[in-house]
Amino acid sequence: MLSQVASFGLLVSFVTLARCQSETGHGLIKYPVTAVNEPGLTAGSSAKRQDAVPLSNGKTGTLYTIQLSVGTPAQPVVVVIDTGSSDLWVNPTCSAAPNQVDFCNSFPRFDYTASSTLNDTGSSFRLNYGKGSALVEYVTDVVTLGSVVLEDQIFGINTDSNDIPLGILGLAPYLGGRLPRYPFVLDTMVAQSEINSRAFSLDLRSVDSPDGSIIFGGIDTKKYIGNLEKRAIIPSSSAPLGTDRYWIYLTSVGITPPAGPSATLYADASPGLPVFLDSGGTLTRLPTPLYRAIGEAFLSEFPDAFLDEPSGYYVVDCSIASSPGSVDFGFGAKTIRVAYKDVIWDLGQPDLNICVVGVLPEDDEPVLGDSFLRAAYVVYDQDNRNLHLAQAANCGTELVAIEKGPDAVPSIVGGCAAEPTSSTPTPGSTTGTTSTTPGSKATTPASQITSSSSYPNVTTPTTITSTFSSTTIYTITSCPPTVSQCPYGQVTTEIVTLTTTFCPGTTASYPTTEKPATTLSISAPCLNCDKPSSTSSPAITGTGSYVPTTPSTSKPTTVVTAGAEKGPSVVRMSFLIIGIAGAAAML
């Protein structure tokens, strides 16, 4: 039965996810990622380019989605890939998604009354995001990705959401606090031997290439340049506001204007600036001094650029997106160069030719969103708490499975050749080449930002090597039904058949003992708002217990239909809306 606030402390016994033995038949799952632009309001005909008001009327963002199937018989659903949250849920309340009702209703919905394998757990929970929230009823049912079938997967069916036009596939680790704890999608993939480790790689692609991919349990060595830089995930005890996310240290930021040379805006290698990587966030948010330094660099390079004070956006001519410059982010020895075309955000107002620099201020929890991730190839390794980064590229397909153990992610140099670049802003960088404009000299501004962060260094676990042979079998999958002229074929799974001779000294596992129901707490600050927030946003509501044993065969008692009217609450979600003027809702 439905409840407004359900108890969800965990009494679940988990199984060991990795075992010390030789195995065959384990593989990976490659799935297409499709970029979908959300609609916005239409700018008034009397708007002027220098006005603040038109900035609130543009496109609300790009969502990176995949299509799943749920239930028996299988029903297609489209969900947003979000590395900033953990839960899978479907069926948003379209009538409570302002300016996006038609967009929301254009996607298929899951009719759970038609599924013969659905079981209602009787527990519900309100999930709060940076903008928006969703009250979900937890059920178990079949979830299908291509030919991979996840039996009895726990996920949520929304009964009352606001400001959210699509369901969400959360791929973050358990965030702690009062959030519900149960086997998430990655956990089930490992438990059912579909993949070897709780790890996946994400390739969002550039704005001029709307299709990317996510590979559960594997990497594609033809989608990046150079080596994969391993960076330890910062533990929650050392992370900003004590949150457990995909935090790593950013050690430098620079800018390479079209005419060169590169200039360093920030550098601190001991240990650096904590940032977390969030595929559910459209923009990048950095501490105010660094945000200003990037903005001032654009003002200096492009005389027509200006700062829109009400919104905090640096407004530029859209033609800048086609310039050869970049904003450069350093992670130790690796520099990820984000081309102007990816960092400049088009607000969808061609008459005004308004674009903005995709960076906003955030002093509490800095985040690298899609405006950064479009230029990066990132491997998220939950089991070993590492992220692996490289410059994204595309020179074919060569799939390799991720194994178990400390060296699970293969240390394979990317198959794509490096492109010529300007001088790097990262001292000691081992990637890229250096060139300058004739007669010019690489310089560093005297006002370079430095940091005296108190965050301790994170020690990377001792590694050992593993060897395995693999045979790649793959086909290209289909797009969501909303994408016309889809270049893909029928949805399938790309499998790597392998034999591994690796036997780790330790295994990744969940506790096998039952845990009593407990009251927990979580800090969920607003990462994507107009201005930096000095306090965290409201905590997740509700505490209690959940026992997924002998599940009920009943269906949820409330039928959720598209457009079901619910009163929106005042909460915020970490992705979705780009509104720029004054009181506009921000990412």
List the helices and strands and how they pair.
Blueprint: E1 8-10, E2 29-38, E3 61-70, E4 75-82, E5 88-90, H1 101-105, E6 119-128, E7 133-145, E8 148-162, E9 167-170, H2 185-191, E10 199-203, E11 211-216, E12 218-220, E13 224-232, E14 247-250, E15 252-256, E16 263-267, E17 273-277, E18 284-286, H3 288-301, E19 306-308, E20 313-317, E21 326-331, E22 334-339, H4 340-343, E23 344-346, E24 354-357, E25 359-361, E26 367-368, H5 370-373, E27 376-381, E28 386-392, E29 399-401, E30 468-473, E31 495-500, E32 544-546
Parallel strand pairs: 1-32, 4-9, 5-8, 17-26, 18-25
Antiparallel strand pairs: 2-3, 2-11, 3-4, 3-7, 5-9, 6-7, 7-8, 10-11, 10-27, 12-29, 13-28, 14-17, 15-16, 15-21, 19-20, 20-24, 21-22, 23-24, 27-28, 30-31
Please tell me about this protein's structure.
Residues 448-458 have a biased composition (Polar residues). Pfam families: Asp. Residues 420-447 have a biased composition (Low complexity). The protein has 587 residues and is mainly β. It has a domain at 8-13 and 36-41 and 51-198 and 507-546: Acid Proteases (Cathepsin D, subunit A, domain 1). The chain contains five helices and 32 strands. The two termini are 34 Å apart. Residues 1-25, 41-60, 422-483 and 487-587 have low confidence and may be disordered.
